[in-house]
């Protein structure tokens, strides 16, 4: 799902320029940065990265599916969660030279993953409802 890649990319870009360093730090937001001590990121930075990613995904899902807003949010949340859990486990495994599978359970406790999924879901819901079709 490109929206997840986009959200991660924006988060790295915002971190790189030091923008939006406001709010409490959310642990595990950037798992690849754990060895450098930068895995925790400020909440505002996460909001600015993940809500628009969810909004774009929500607009795509609005046009591409017949799901309700709640259905689109649930679908995106599930897909984003799976991708972020797998990416987080891969990042952890790479950091300590271990198997990805051994790091999957740890991902369930990562606040960064859960916050990213919740913020993407907010974005999907902000994408709004499907406009009513007009009778021809």
Outline the structure in words.
This protein is mainly α. 63% of the residues lie in helices and 3% in strands. It has helices at 2-17, 43-64, 69-96, 104-107, 111-126, and strands spanning 25-26, 41-42. Strands 1-2 form a two-stranded antiparallel ribbon. It is globular, with a radius of gyration of 16 Å. The mean pLDDT is 85.
| Estimated structural class | mainly alpha
Number of strands: 2
Total helical segments = 5
Could you list the spans in which at least 5 consecutive residues all have pLDDT below 50? Answer: none
| Helical residues, percent | 55-70%
Strand percentage, roughly? under 5%
Enumerate the strands of the largest sheet in spatial order, edge to edge or round the barrel.
1-2
Using the alpha-carbon principal axes, give the shape. Answer: globular
